[in-house]
């Protein structure tokens, strides 16, 4: 099936997709800040440039979009009907890169928390954020 947009329209649409400061990411950041947590953003010294880095807790938080990271079993992850093969390669590449980055971060003894955008929808937001608080405990040295 051919793309329904011209190359110029598709390029414009894709240029509007943000990778930083997305609504789900801002939601998690505001929640953490309101609960007294201080963090670094997009630390490029760690593999994958985690969205939120809590050095005191030796924890990184990735806030993933369900579509671009291929969230299995999620209603927001639907394989497009146009350019299906290209999108599957892209999404599977993202999954492989996420797994490799997580392995490297774990080897450095950091905790990894991944929050998907569907977990921040109104019905499950409070539970997700409260569970996140439970995971953030200082590492004893």
Structural class: alpha+beta
What are the segments in which pLDDT stays under 50 over at least 5 consecutive residues? Answer: none
Order of strands, widest sheet? 1-2-3-4
And the CATH topology?
A: Endonuclease, Chain A
Total number of distinct structural domains:
1
N-end to C-end Cα span: 57 Å
Query: CATH first level: which class?
Result: Alpha Beta
Proportion of residues in helical segments: 25-40%
Using the alpha-carbon principal axes, give the shape.
Answer: globular
Please report the number of helical segments.
4
Radius of gyration: 17 Å
CATH superfamily: VSR Endonuclease
The tally of beta strands, per DSSP, is 4
| CATH architecture grouping | 3-Layer(aba) Sandwich
Overall mean pLDDT stands at 90
Approximate strand percentage: 5-15%
Helix/strand order: HHEEEHEH
Q: Major sheet: size, sense and barrel closure?
A: 4 strands, mixed
Keywords: DNA damage, DNA repair, Endonuclease, Hydrolase, Nuclease, Plasmid
Family: Belongs to the vsr family.
Organism: Spirosoma taeanense
Function: May nick specific sequences that contain T:G mispairs resulting from m5C-deamination.
């Amino acid at each position: 099936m051919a793309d329904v947009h011209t190359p110029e329209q598709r390029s414009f649409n894709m240029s509007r997709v943000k990778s930083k400061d997305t609504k789900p990411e801002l939601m998690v950041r505001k929640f953490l800040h309101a609960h007294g947590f201080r963090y670094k953003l997009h630390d490029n010294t760690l593999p994958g440039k985690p969205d939120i880095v809590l050095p005191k807790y030796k924890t990184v938080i990735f806030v993933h979009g369900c579509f671009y990271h291929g969230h299995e079993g999620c209603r927001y992850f639907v394989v497009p009907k146009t350019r299906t093969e290209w999108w599957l390669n892209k999404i599977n590449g993202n999954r492989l890169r996420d797994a490799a980055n997580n392995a490297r971060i774990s080897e450095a003894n950091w905790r990894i928390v991944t929050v998907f955008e569907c977990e921040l929808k109104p019905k499950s937001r409070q539970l997700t954020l409260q569970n996140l608080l439970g995971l953030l405990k200082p590492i004893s040295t």
